[in-house]
Every structure is written in C-alpha cells, then in structure tokens.
Amino acid sequence: MTIRAAETVLRPRSVERLVVGQATSDGAGVKLTRVLTQPLQRRLDPFLMLDAFGSDEADDYIAGFPDHPHRGFETITYMIAGRMRHRDSAGHEGLLENGGVQWMTAGRGVIHSEIPQQQEGRMEGFQLWLNLPARDKLCTPWYRDFSGGELPCFNTDAGVRVTVIAGESHGVAGAVTREATAPLYLDLQLPAGAPFSQALPEGHNAFLYVYRGELAVAGTAVPAGRMAILANDAGSDGVVIEAAGLGTRALLIAGRPLGEPIAQYGPFVMNSEQEIYQALADYRAGTLAGA
C-alpha cells in the first residue's frame, strides 16, 4: 500500500451546517436514509441525491429495486457490505459485492433493476446521483462495474486509508473522472485522532457524510449519521478533518456546479418541464431506452 504525504491546505473550509437525513423507503420497500434531499440540489449542485442504506434485517432490503427508468443523470452505487445484482435495458449486468462500485450513466434512458443476492446478513452502502450537463443528458448510456480490488487506494502518513472512487487525491487518480462536473468521491477510514487534508478547488460544492464514529471539521463535531455541508469560504483551498474516535469512516464528496436549471420528476432529471413531459411520453410509449 502506497504511503502519501498530506496535502497542504492553508485556508480550510468551515462547516456551513449539519444535515440529518430523512428515513424513507424506495424501490419495492427498501428502507434507507435520504441524506441529500431535493431541496439541497441547488446548494450541492452537481449532486442530486445521496441515499444511505444499511440493515441486518432481510425484510428491510430483500425486495430490492425492480425495473425502473432513469434519464438525464448518473448513478454511483457503492457497496460496503452485501451482494446486489444489476441489470439494465442496454444489456449490462453485474454483481456488486463488498467494496465494489457500479457507475451508470443513464443518458437518454435505461430501464434498470437492482436485486439483492442474499437472504440474510448485512446489506450496506450508498447511492449517489450526479447530474449531467444539458449537452450530455441524451447521451448514449454507459455502465461500469468496479470490484473493491480495482478501486485505487492509498494510506497517508497519518494512517488514513483512502479509497478514490472519482477525482484525484494526493496524486492518486480515481476509478472515474468527469470533465464537466469534476466529481471527487472519497471513502475515508481514519484511526483515532488522525488528521486528513484534501485540496478542493474554490467554488466547488462539497460535503462530508460520516457513517462510523465522529469527525471534527474546523472545530465543528460531525457525528455518525450527519452530513456536513462545507462552506464555500472565499479564498479557501481545501478541507482539514480529524477523527474523534476509533473506527471513523466518512465519505468526502465534491464537484464543480453546473449552474443549469434542474427539473426533476422521480427518476427523470432534465433542464425543463417540457423535457420531463417528453421523458414521460417516451417511457409510456416504450421508447425511453434506446430511443
């Protein structure tokens, strides 16, 4: 495992606010927490949604997410524990297992399903929705599965283990890059008291979601189950965090805002109501996927 020196951050961002996710269900009754909700889409542009799911009770996840449509954005599913089979109308299929990521660009449209491949045990992970710029919303769908072993990882000299799903951290390029939105998606595992610094471009929207333990960011405690929206402080060049206890794990996510209109109706995210009406019409006519 490569050891990397800490990135230099001279003007770290502060925490604008802490957000508590909303308990809900989706698909065929899968219980989850919606961390990034629709009212935060403009503030956290280009990110549209973050769902966290985690349960040892099969009834909370066993029905999965049967066939459903998507158009106009990307989904990134990160599996911490469990096994989920994905299929879509473009002919893609894969088995997402512990530590793996599935990245899907819905583009002009896919019909997609995600079905657990276990009858018991823990199912835990996240799904992030990343917007597409207007010019790419009707692009050809794209799909890629990454096993846990394929995701770039490194350790800092303070003992922090970093998995780079997207973007770049400490000179390590992630599994996926995107020119328009420049997403950064890191999974951080921090020993007690360990610091971690990450450079962030000024103007990029960024947030942390702690799912084990507790972090401190610029003097603000961020406990497990909370999202910390990082302030877009003028002149800031990154974020500095420190683990407050044992076994701390957190997602650090950032990206370049698109600054475009957002029109969402369920699984369709476009730039105007007219485009939403067209997506609905295409879906009802059976031409959404491969139109």
Features:
single chain; 291 residues; mainly beta; 7-stranded antiparallel β-sheet; 4% helix; 50% strand; globular
Give a structural overview:
The protein has 291 residues and is mainly beta. Helices cover 4% and strands 50% of the residues. It has 1 helix and 27 strands. It has an 8-stranded mixed beta sheet, with no helix packed on it. A 7-stranded antiparallel beta sheet has the order 3-4-5-12-7-10-13, with no helix packed on it. Strand 3 (22-26) and strand 4 form a beta hairpin. The longest helix is centred in the C-terminal third of the chain and has 13 residues, at 273-285. It is globular, with a radius of gyration of 18 Å. The chain starts with a strand and ends in a 6-residue tail after the last helix. The mean pLDDT is 93.
Bin the strand percentage. over 45%
Q: Main sheet: which strands, in order across?
A: 1-14-15-18-25-20-23-2
Number of DSSP strands? 27
Mean pLDDT: 93
In terms of structural class, how would the helical and strand content be classed? mainly beta
Q: Give me the strand/helix succession.
A: EEEEEEEEEEEEEEEEEEEEEEEEEEEH
Q: Whole-number radius of gyration?
A: 18 Å
Q: Could you state the oligomeric state of the chains shown?
A: single chain
Q: Choose one word for the global shape.
A: globular
What portion of residues is helical? under 10%
Q: Distance N terminus to C terminus?
A: 45 Å
Tell me about the biggest sheet?
8 strands, mixed
Low-confidence stretches: none
SSE map:
Layout: E1 3-4, E2 15-20, E3 22-26, E4 30-36, E5 47-55, E6 65-70, E7 73-81, E8 84-88, E9 93-96, E10 101-105, E11 110-116, E12 123-131, E13 142-146, E14 153-156, E15 161-166, E16 168-169, E17 172-173, E18 184-190, E19 195-199, E20 205-212, E21 214-217, E22 220-223, E23 226-230, E24 238-243, E25 248-255, E26 263-265, E27 268-270, H1 273-285
Parallel strand pairs: 1-14
Antiparallel strand pairs: 2-23, 3-4, 4-5, 5-12, 6-11, 7-10, 7-12, 8-9, 8-11, 10-13, 14-15, 15-18, 16-17, 18-25, 19-24, 20-23, 20-25, 21-22, 21-24, 26-27
